[in-house]
Amino acid sequence: METAVARILLGSAPLDEASMGTLAVFQWATGRRALTPVTEVSTGPGAPGRAELAEENRAALRQLHDWKLDLGARYFASGAALALAWLLGHIEQP
User: Fold this and answer.
1) The domain containing residue 64 runs over which residues?
2) What is the number of other CB atoms lying within 10 angstroms of the CB of residue 29?
């Protein structure tokens, strides 16, 4: 996961919303962020468990497909959903 975070942070351009969503998930998954990245709920200290990751992934997918949200929020949700799917073992690369 540290390699994936480094790839995001080493880019020369400012982070887009999808990259910010991915980075927020990685920070939360490693216990460096207290709030969930999509629903912004406090989960307390430490890294989340599989059930919390799955719940946040479902929330990200709901936001991704919510056409009432602005495009930036949906891009953030897209990056978060991909990162969460990777952490859950649903895809091979974030």
Assistant:
1) 2-87
2) 20
**Domain contains 92:** no
| Residues in CB range of 37: below 8 A, 6 or more apart | 21, 24, 25, 27, 28, 56, 60, 80
* pLDDT tens digits, 26-35: 999 999 899 9
Query: How many structural domains comprise the chain?
Result: 1
CB 48 within 8 A of CB 20: no
Q: Is residue 12 one of the residues assigned to a domain?
A: yes
- Would you say 43 and 24 are in contact if contact means Cβ atoms under 8 Å apart? no
User: Is 93 a member of any domain?
Assistant: no
pTM, full prediction: 0.85
